[in-house]
Amino acid sequence: MVYSVSKVNDYIKKMFMNDFVLNRISVEGEVGNCTYASSNHIYFTIKDEGGTLSAVMFASQRGGLSFDMKTGQKVIVTGNISCYERDGKYQLYAEKIEEAGRGELYEQYLLLREKLEDMGMFDQIYKKDIPKFVKSIGVATAKTGAVINDIRNVSYRRNPYIRIVLVPCLVQGEGAAKSIISAIKKLDKMNLDVLIVGRGGGSIEDLHCFNDEELANTIFNAKTPIISAVGHGKDFTIADFVADKIASTPSEAAEFANFIYDDYMYTLDTYMRKLKVGLERKIEDKKRDLNTLLLRLNRKSPQFRLREQKQSLESSSRILQNTFKNILENRKIQIENLAKRLDMASPLKKISGGYAYISDENNKKVLSAKSLKPDEEVNIYFSDGKVRAKVL
Questions:
Q1: Are 258 and 162 in contact (CB under 8 A)?
Q2: Which alpha helices (H) appear in the chain, and where do they start and end?
Q3: What integer pLDDT is reported at residue 367 of this predicted model?
Q4: CA–CA separation, 325 vs 383, rounded Å?
Q5: Which of 4, 80, 93, 211 has the maximum number of C-beta atoms within 10 A of its C-beta?
Q6: Is 88 left (phi over 0), alpha (psi -120 to 50) or beta?
Q7: From CA 102, how far away is CA 204, in angstroms rounded?
Q8: Which three-class secondary structure state does DSSP give residue 169?
Q9: Position 234 pLDDT exceeds 80
Q10: Which residue, 190, 192, 185, is CA-closest to 219?
């Protein structure tokens, strides 16, 4: 019987699918010919000294890769092996890719993380606050390298007066965990404001010393707030979870630890000006209140009452004097008018014009010649004197 190529490839594919081992297999080897396609698929080979196996990780499975895979890396690829019918070749379809050697350390990391989390060591209630105005920083890291340089550069740029105390320690390899623990304990006794524990990024093997249980206990029990700056953002260690604050990089840790001195001084000057203006305004308000109270007190005082009454009495006296004066003036005018009228009606006034006033010997007014008798004596009054006469 003769089969077509597609039939043969389909048959081989079904053989792969029915094979229990090939349906879920993990293969360890070195990455070769690694290509990231525009479709987000990754095409590569995995090889060892004895052979090469084609592999692909489709975009839908990219969640199974947590690092930037490059040619030459040793990895463990988990997935299934099947036949690509069009090309008639088999390849490994990757669902998960890990760095070689990472598996066991990662399992240890997960177990310790779960244990410490169950103990409550990651709980937020145990996190100490980073002081707002830090004056001294302790650093536990390698003596030389980018980490301490980054921390110093960022710190001095933000606050030229910050005090940085470095206690060098190993941050990788055998004895690193104990070295870091010793450095933290020394710094914790110096009464510093905050500690930074960190190193640059690396593989899980490089960062393994920060996944140490004794180191976790040391960080948790330290009285000084600790910022963990291990790795580069995507790397998380036990030290990160137990520390009081996590920084993605040492530079970010320095930013967390330091306030900006110039901004602080500007804010302080602003508050001082506002305080001065506020105090001056308050003093003026209090002065006005005091003057008001003094005025009210003066108005209630006997002297003020006497002064008011004296002023009132003086005012009444002036009014009374003016009233009497007006009355007197009016009376004077009336008297002058009456005097004028009386003067006009006075006999002396009349007789002063050549007339005379005549009375009989009994001083009775003589109004008619007929009332007189011959030889009767009469009195004749002139304006300048009196004469006695006899009627002839």
A1: yes
A2: 5-18, 20-23, 102-118, 146-158, 176-188, 213-221, 238-242, 250-257, 261-300, 302-345, 347-351
A3: 84
A4: 38
A5: 211
A6: left
A7: 6
A8: coil
A9: no
A10: 185
Please state, in angstroms and rounded to a whole number, the distance separating the CA atoms of residues 197 and 132: 19
* Segment 94-120, tens digit of pLDDT: 999 888 766 667 778 888 989 999 999
The two tokens of residue 182 are 């010793």
Q: What is the pLDDT of residues 184-231, one digit of tens each?
A: 999 999 999 999 999 887 777 778 899 999 999 999 999 999 999 986
Backbone angles phi, psi at 30, to 5 degrees: -100, 140
Tens digits of per-residue pLDDT, 301-313?
A: 777 777 777 888 8
Cα-based torsion angle of the residue sequence 257, 263, 266, 269 in order, rounded to the nearest 10 degrees: -20
- Residue 188 exposure: Cα atoms within 13 Å on the Cβ side: 17
Residue found by looking up tokens 């890719």 in the block:
97
The tokens for 170 are: 């190993």
pLDDT at 36: 92
Tokens standing for residue 230: 């291990």
**What is the per-residue pLDDT across 270-317, written as a single tens digit (0 to 9) for each?**
999 999 999 999 999 999 989 888 887 777 777 777 777 788 888 888
What's the distance, CA 219 to chain centroid? 32
The whole-number pLDDT of residue 353 equals 65
Contact 157, 261 (CB under 8 A): no
Signed CA dihedral, 114, 118, 121, 123: sign only: positive
Distance CA 329, CA 33 (A): 135
Q: Does residue 75 contact residue 100 with C-beta atoms inside 8 Å?
A: yes
Are 172 and 202 a contacting pair, CB within 8 Å? Answer: yes
Top-confidence residue, 13 or 219: 219
Residue in the structure block whose two tokens are 């002065």? 287
Residue linked to tokens 């007789």: 351
